[in-house]
Design a protein that fits this description.
heterodimer, A: Ubiquitin-like (UB roll), 2 domains, five-stranded mixed sheet, B: Aldehyde Oxidoreductase, domain 4, Aldehyde Oxidoreductase, domain 4, seven-stranded mixed sheet, disordered N terminus
Chain lengths: 157, 775
């Protein structure tokens, strides 16, 4: 075990774990954050996605000791009690069925929109393609991303 | 809030319910300790004949509905609230609904079969209507006015003509119990004296209030079944046999004994699990544990490539008598044109988005299981029987989880967690890893469907012979203590395995001479196999429909008829049966889908284009129960790569009374795309020793890039009397999966002129088929 310093959702945190422990387990079991989910443990599905310095990262395959920078989980996306426009768009479009994958969908979309504020349909398909949903809420997700993008760039949602 | 104790894992709704129902009479600050004391068991069955079991009215004039259903993500909980608010006459937004926890909600089984609104909402409606009636009686006494001179709106009762005389539901009943006994032999029949309302009287039904579970799913605040944390808990991971049918010959515990956090190796028969203090420790130890196994003398199954050959040659374990109408053989003998074709559908997995999981807590000599399984009540009985505990010592708390589309492995994980928890005396969290989930969850069975058809000289379908064979000799039921995987691995063998089945064609076509038969074959190994079969969304229904609706398309093409017109003509033909109701709605859905799509009449195939991208359209139709679904798919097929893109999909859907149109649309949309995933990608692959599908590459699923440019849902009311006041709701979700495989295959044929009779439509297979046909 060794002490690891992390900055999660704007707060510094210190955990005492084996350095190889996947960041996902530290977030979930030590810091009790439940936005990121275990889906595959192999970086294939995206359920465990977190943002690190704004990049979408698969926390199930990232050792906690290698996590450098500002970590944001789904819980940290809202600012001052106000949902992020993507989260609001998810509600407006009633996106989830079971909702288990939506942490990864929302955070992957966030990282994508930060780089590409007005993505084309093709860019959305490509940017989101490795983030899976088994309820097949994809069409809703893509609709919500377009709604949020419009809102974030100043248009009417 | 960091969850620390049992009840902390539960939702606010549940807490409110317990408090107001008198089960948890404490102030907010001290509720945790009280909750534990109050809920430490035993857990007798909730009495469905008591009105108080269903509805609690609070002092602030709000209501909590308590129902024995689970909502795995289709929004049924919101629909129940709409219907019950209507019957109770309370504002929808003043209500909440708690679901599926065996100690506080009546046993309505949980979910399954898309029957939530069709069957299970009726008792809810009747009890809500009864609560309204009882409250009016109470108001009558209180206000000194006969009940028939009272009126109620938004849970406020007033005297007709004198609104100053009023009393609220909360004032009448909050803090007290109804103490009203209902009648009815079972839950589905439970009723009071009040009558339910007719459709025109329903106010919230037909509206689209937002689903109540979504906000917490997008802000990260929801506590899921995977999130339950209890003091003293440990983590367990399974060690599965490396070869199917292998016998455990040794465990070398020294390989894990000194690993950090190691607690224990659990073993009985061929069941092996490792328990550690922390999750990552359990994952590591399960991988590190050295076990030795003896391979079985004979292969448990053929490889997936040889499966259909094996199935054709296998001896059936069940062969019900064929259903025959007219004289098919005579009609075949006199046919102008004969067609024959065989269709193949592979094993497909549930492949839940997270591995199966459960938390089991053995505190106080009871067993509490936290699970996302759709059928919490069955799980309670299963866990009790498996552990040899009385039912009332076991409760199952239903919490949200990855999609529940039938007999998933959630119940296997629950029995594993409970067994280990009982052995260890500590709360145990079990979670399957990805490879385990994909390889070992219960599968939808493989099918070979053999079709024969006769056209007369005018191109009419005169005879039809359907034979469906499924590989489904040991079909798992739900929550059976003698078939859950841990029981099988421990050596339990049920004397008579339940044989699966195959549905007859789900169409209303008037075909004068029909023969329909089904049989079932089995793999060599029936037990301890990852190719164990169980219900998967539209179980044993969508596979035959791939055969029947592809074949109708082949017949239409042979008759040089437009495939939509060909179907309409078959539906309009005269028949002697009395099924006009479903027939009328079938016609309405086909017409609505065609109109939405802008269907132009012509036979298939389309004129084959010159470039790399070939385009076409396909249609298929079916019903499930009383619900009709028609899907039209427009495809682009890449001639060079074999890649198939469903560019546009139209789905027309008639499920009777629509409770929440927006919710229904989205459920239909997602179900349609689930069908597309199963048509394009999903196939369990295996060699003769093991399942080789073990992740999202080897059992692929639909992705963002596959999503159509446009998915258009048309909600149809094809009832011959569409405004009848007693129009009932029928099931919604599963019907949407049924036509898709055939619709896609028919579109590929239309685009390419090549008929592919095996799903999934993987690019390599499509490319090979096109190449073989010279396209």
């Amino acid at each position: 075990m060794s002490k690891i310093d992390l900055k999660v959702n704007r707060h510094p945190q210190t955990v005492d774990v084996e350095p190889s422990t996947p960041l996902l387990y530290v977030l979930r079991n030590d810091l009790h954050l439940q936005g990121p989910k275990f889906g595959c443990g192999m970086g294939q599905c995206g359920a465990c996605t977190v943002l690190i310095n704004g990049e979408a990262v698969r926390s199930c395959i990232l050792p906690a000791s290698a996590a450098r920078g500002e970590i944001t989980t789904l819980e940290g996306l809202a600012q001052n009690g106000k949902l992020h426009p993507l989260q609001q768009a998810w509600i407006d479009e009633q996106v989830p069925q079971c909702g288990f994958c939506q942490n990864g969908q929302i955070l992957t979309a966030k990282a994508m929109l930060d780089k590409t504020p007005n993505p084309t349909d093709a860019q959305i398909r490509e940017g989101m393609n490795n983030t899976l949903c088994r309820c097949m809420s994809y069409y809703r997700i893509q609709t919500a991303i377009k709604r949020a993008a419009k809102k974030m760039s100043g248009g009417a949602a | 809030m960091i969850p620390r104790k049992i009840e902390d894992a539960l939702t606010l709704h549940r807490r409110d319910f317990l408090r107001t129902a008198g089960l948890l009479a404490v102030s907010f600050g001290g509720w945790l300790e009280e909750a534990e004391a109050q809920t430490s068991g035993p857990y007798p069955d909730v009495d469905f004949r008591q009105l108080d079991s269903w509805i609690v009215i609070h002092a602030d004039n709000t209501a909590t509905f308590s129902v024995g259903k689970t909502d795995p993500g289709q929004g049924t909980g919101t629909a129940f609230r709409q219907l019950m608010s209507d019957e109770l006459d309370i504002a929808f937004e003043k209500t909440t609904c708690i679901m599926g926890s065996t100690d506080i909600t009546v046993d309505q089984v949980g979910s399954g079969g898309s029957t939530a609104l069709e069957r299970d909402a009726w008792p809810m409606r009747r009890v809500a209507a009864e609560a309204r009636r009882v409250l009016l009686e109470m108001a009558s006494t209180k206000l000194g006015v006969p009940a028939d001179q009272l009126t109620v709106r938004d849970a406020v009762i007033t005297v007709k003509g004198d609104a100053s005389k009023r009393v609220t539901y909360g004032e009448l009943i909050a803090g007290k119990k109804f103490n009203v006994t209902l009648t009815g032999n079972n839950i589905n029949a439970v009723t009071g004296k009040a009558k339910t309302k007719l459709v025109p009287e329903l106010k919230y039904t037909g509206q689209s209030p937002h689903r109540d579970d979504i906000p917490a799913k997008v802000d990260g605040s929801l506590k899921w079944a995977v999130d339950v944390r209890l003091p003293g808990m440990v983590h367990a991971r399974n060690v599965k046999p490396p070869y199917v049918g292998a016998k455990l010959t040794g465990i070398d515990e020294s390989t894990v004994r000194n690993l950090p956090g190691f607690v224990k190796v659990m073993n009985k028969g061929n069941y092996v699990a490792v328990v550690c203090e922390r999750e990552e420790q359990a994952v590591r130890a399960a991988r590190a544990l050295k076990t030795t196994w003896e391979k079985p003398a004979t292969a448990p199954f053929p490889s997936s490539e040889d499966l259909y050959k094996y199935m054709r040659a296998a001896k059936p374990v069940s062969a019900p008598k064929p259903v025959v109408a007219g004289n098919p053989e005579a009609a075949f003998a006199g046919a102008a044109k004969l067609l024959e074709a065989e269709y193949e559908v592979p094993y497909q997995g549930h492949t839940a988005f997270a591995g199966a999981h459960a938390m089991a807590d053995p505190s106080n000599g009871q067993m509490t299981v936290y699970s996302n399984d759709m059928k919490s009540y069955g799980m309670r009985r299963c866990v009790a029987a498996f552990l040899g505990m009385p039912n009332d010592r076991v409760r199952v708390v239903y919490m949200q989880g990855p999609q529940g589309f039938g007999r998933s492995a959630a119940e296997d994980a629950a029995c594993e967690a409970a067994w280990i928890a009982k052995e260890l005396g500590r709360p145990v969290r079990m979670q399957w890893m990805r490879d385990e989930e994909t390889a070992w969850d219960a599968k939808g069975p493989a099918f070979v469907v053999k079709m024969r058809g006769a056209l007369d000289a005018a191109g009419n379908l005169s005879a039809y012979d359907y034979h469906a064979r499924s590989c489904d000799a040991n079909h798992l039921g739900y929550n059976e203590p003698d078939t859950v995987l841990i029981a099988q691995l421990m050596g339990v063998r049920r004397a008579n395995p339940a044989t699966g089945s195959s549905s007859l064609p789900s169409d209303m076509y008037a075909i004068p001479n029909r023969k329909m038969s089904v049989d079932v074959v089995g793999l060599p190994l029936l037990w301890e196999t990852p190719l164990r079969t169980g219900n998967l969304r539209d179980p044993n229904g969508l596979q035959p429909t791939f055969g029947t609706e592809s074949f109708i398309d082949e017949l239409a093409a042979a008759a040089k008829a437009d495939p939509l017109e060909f179907r309409l003509k078959l539906l309009r033909g005269s028949t002697s049966d009395d099924s006009g109701f479903l027939r009328a709605r079938s016609i309405a859905c086909l017409q609505a889908a065609g109109a939405k799509y802008g269907w132009e009449q012509r036979p298939s195939p389309n004129r084959i284009a010159k470039g790399d991208i070939l385009t076409g359209r396909g249609i298929a139709y079916s019903f499930r129960g009383m619900t009709v679904a028609v899907q039209i798919v427009e495809v682009e097929v890449n001639r060079k790569t074999g890649h198939v893109w469903a560019k546009r999909i139209v789905c027309a859907h008639d499920c009777g009374l629509v409770v929440n149109p927006q919710n229904l649309r989205y459920t239909v949309e997602c179900g349609t795309l689930h069908g597309l995933s199963r048509a394009l990608h999903e196939e369990v692959q295996f060699d003769t020793e093991k399942v080789t599908s073990k992740d999202w590459f080897s059992h692929p699923s639909l992705r963002h890039a596959d999503v159509p440019e446009s998915v258009e849902i048309v909600l149809v009311n094809g009832d011959p009397n569409p405004n009848r006041p007693d129009l009932p709701p029928y099931g919604a979700g599963e019907a949407t999966l049924k036509p898709m495989m055939a619709a896609l295959g028919n579109a590929v044929f239309d685009a390419t002129g090549v008929r592919i009779r095996r799903v999934p439509f993987r690019a390599d297979r499509v490319r090979a088929a096109l190449k073989a046909a010279g396209v």
